Amino acid sequence: MIALGTRRILLTLPVLFLISVIVFSLLHLIPGDPARVILGQDATPRALEALRVQLGLTKPLWVQYLQWMGNVLHGNLGRSLQNGLPVSLLIGQALPVTIELAVGTILVSGLIAIPLGIYAATHRGRLADLITVFGASIGLSIPPFWLGIMLLLLFSVNLHIFPSSGFVPFGQNPLQNLQAMCLPVLATAVREAAVLLRMMRSSLVEVLDADYIRTARAKGLIWRIVVIRHAVRNALVPVLTQSGLQIAGLLGGLVITETIFSLPGFGSLLVNSIFSRDYTVIQGGALVVAVLVVGVNLLTDLCYGLLDPRIRMDKGGM
């Protein structure tokens, strides 16, 4: 397992370097003068020159990259061009909200999808299987933003069970935090659960038709033990892959849900920065998203080794 983790980490190093180059180039890929694009056409020459000095645009490109990377490695992502606050502070305030929403979505969707997927696969062709697949198709067809609005109307406006907006950190008040996050998590988890359910069912159906499953049954093993100990573990590998992709997508794609429920999350921060042309926040946010996606993929690869011993025992596997 240590060898597998070492190989995966070594593979991520060039990826992270390439990401840093691409993110650094964002500011320099702006057509024309980046300072004039940020400040507008009416900016004075003095203001333009001051911004160029602030962003380090007057220095050679390789010097700018080395200084920027040095600051990044020390946790300094620059300052916002709109309010002067440190970008790391803004991201540090917004990112936990999105991470909580993303992790909660995956946990709820997994708790829904995996048991139902196992049940559908072990009862394939029967009425329960058809109902489960039909329900998954409906879940895939419901837009999360529409479901979020309907949940707000039902549970907040009509029943007054959950708050309609606002966010309270978990450390400040756990109960209010769970109440505020319940509807957003449910609104995004329905579609994700439908995807995982279909993946779990199809993967387990394929595994149950394998020769080693038939051999285990021929030896007289109890069907429930065969499914849980042998089939489900192997069937979870593609489900784990899909879960990793979902987490990576949710980290940067929850802006609609955050807007509907008035959550001060990471997606809302990036969108507002794009509208206000706050390129230092955009640059820092893009770097954080990319690093998080790489980290999620690395964690997913390590989990492969826990589920399938053949992966961690394969010394040549990359």
What's a quick, concise take on this entry?
With 318 residues, this protein is mainly α.
Any overview of this molecule?
The chain has 318 residues and is mainly alpha-helical. The protein has one domain: MetI-like (MetI-like fold, Orthogonal Bundle), CATH 1.10.3720. 77% of the residues lie in helices and 0% in strands. The protein is built from 14 helices and no strands. The chain has helices at 2-25, 34-39, 45-55, 61-73, 87-122, 127-141, 144-158, 174-208, 211-218, 223-253, 255-260, 266-275, 279-307, 309-313. α5 runs antiparallel to α6 (127-141) and α6 (127-141) crosses α8. The radius of gyration is 24 Å and the shape is globular.
Q: What's the CATH class label?
A: Mainly Alpha
Question: How many domains make up the 3D coordinates?
Answer: 1
| Biggest sheet record | none
Named CATH topology: MetI-like fold
Q: Would you report the number of β strands?
A: 0
Helix content: over 70%
Mean pLDDT across every amino acid position: 83
- Cα separation of the termini: 13 Å
Principal-axis shape: globular
CATH superfamily: MetI-like
Radius of gyration, whole Å: 24 Å
Named at the architecture level, the CATH assignment is Orthogonal Bundle
Strand content: under 5%
- Class computed from helices, strands and strand pairing: mainly alpha
